[in-house]
Amino acid sequence: MKLRNLIPLLCAVVLFCSQTTTKSQTPENQKRTLIRAGHMIDVKTGKTLDAQTIIVVGRTIQSIAPSASVAAGPGDAVIDLGSMTVLPGLIDAHTHLTMDTNFDPYHELTMTDARSAITGGHCDDNLLPYKYHATYGGVADGIAEVQHKVRENIKYGADLIKVCATGGVLSKGDDPQASQFTLEEMQAIVADAHRLGRKVAAHAHGGQGILWAAEAGVDSIEHGTYIDDKAIAVMKEKGTYLVPTLYLEDWIQQNGHLPAFAQKKMEEVSLVAKKNIKHAMDSGVKIAMGTDAAVYPHGLNAHELDVYVNQLGMTPIAALQTATVNAADLMGWSAKTGSLEPGKWADVIAVDGDPLKDIRLLQDVKFVMKAGRVYKQNGRGLVE
Fold it and tell me: What span, in angstroms and rounded, lies between the C-alpha atoms of 228 and 219?
């Protein structure tokens, strides 16, 4: 075959392949869903935009435009939220999936965990007597052991390393104000975790433990009960997030039945936590919302934002930012979620009324979409 005859044939083949490829890329997953929002909160600016349409294709937001400029086409699915306020899905940066609200300490022996801790500290098994030599799998002492434990957790799938930098409240035999890991141990933990692409969260109540964890370079301090000016200065310098878990204190005071050793510690931390954390907030420490659910029941998570606003004086938009753009930033997900923008996951919720006037409205979410899939509509969960 001569070259001049071959060229048209090649062009036809290329055109055919191009047309085939185009057709194969426009099946069901390219169907549009139009969310007609009566009001939409831009959590980055704090502005509320009226009559907006969020165009969702697959798992992501394709575009956002005034509703008057977006006509529904054949095959488009339309979700009418014209009477509601729409905002990004909320992120809880501190939860437990396998716990429950049974505070019998020996019930905890049925639970499993992968947190890193020192021998005898918070996150160790301190309930059984000496003859059992019981210990949790995350316990490590000394630099070599903590490095090994970080690598082992990553080997088995951990995408974040959590360390217990101080004692805790619901654990037996430890002191929330006492540091657990040394500064050098925490530096080794953080160095290995960051080198292997994992962030580090530090459970820390006491001031020295918070300070050492921040100096070691952890990404977040969880709880932060006894945070002081020294720790605040280092956290601001390094950009460390504080993840308070404050509604937990209110819920336990009303509903919890703690063993005596935990009740005493809970009463002590409750006397100072909100005052100290408000000081940290007012001083400019970055805050990401966390709740400690399921220490109290899942589903009450938005009460944490009520504490920030109505007990600590945070503005509603700042509180919303802790659970959206701030939490996404802490998790390294800013390009994926945390705000309603083209290219991000279609994580969308809606409430009646204006949460910038009443943050408690977030406790009664009427609509939930996660990555383009609707899980709740008209106030009812959708179960397949």
Answer: 18
Q: Would you give the DSSP letter of residue 177?
A: T
Residue 51 shares a structural domain with residue 123:
no
Residue 321 token pair: 């930012």
Q: How far apart are CA 136 and CA 117, in angstroms?
A: 9
Domain count, the chain: 2
Strands 77-88, 348-352: pairing is antiparallel
- Identify the domain boundary among 254, 278, 301: 301
Residue 87 near residue 320 (C-beta atoms within 8 A): yes
pLDDT at 175: 83
- The residue ranges of the chain whose pLDDT is under 70 are 1-29, 98-137, 383-384
Q: What is the CATH number of the domain that holds 226?
A: 3.20.20.140
Q: Is 63 helix (H, G, I), strand (E, B) or coil?
A: strand
What single-letter DSSP state applies at residue 371? T
Cα Rg of the chain (Å, integer): 25
User: Across the beta sheet with 160-164, what order do the strands follow?
Assistant: 160-164, 199-204, 220-223, 241-243, 286-287
Residue the block writes with tokens 């005493």: 264
Distance CA(288)–CA(188), nearest Å, equals 25
What does each C-alpha distance from 189 to 123, 170, 178, 346, 384 come to in angstroms?
16, 24, 19, 35, 43
Please check whether residue 313 lies inside any domain of the structure.
Answer: no
Q: Domain of 351? A: 29-89+337-381
Residue 284 is encoded by which pair of tokens? 């400019």
Tokens linked to 150: 């970080």
Q: Is residue 129 part of a domain?
A: yes
366: CATH: 2.30.40.10
Catalytic site positions? 162, 292
Whole-number Å distance between alpha carbons of 16 and 31: 24
265 in the same domain as 186: yes
* Shared-domain flag, residues 281 and 231: yes
User: Tens of pLDDT along 2-16?
Assistant: 434 433 333 333 333
Residues 223 and 348 both lie in one domain: no
Residue 3 has what pLDDT?
38
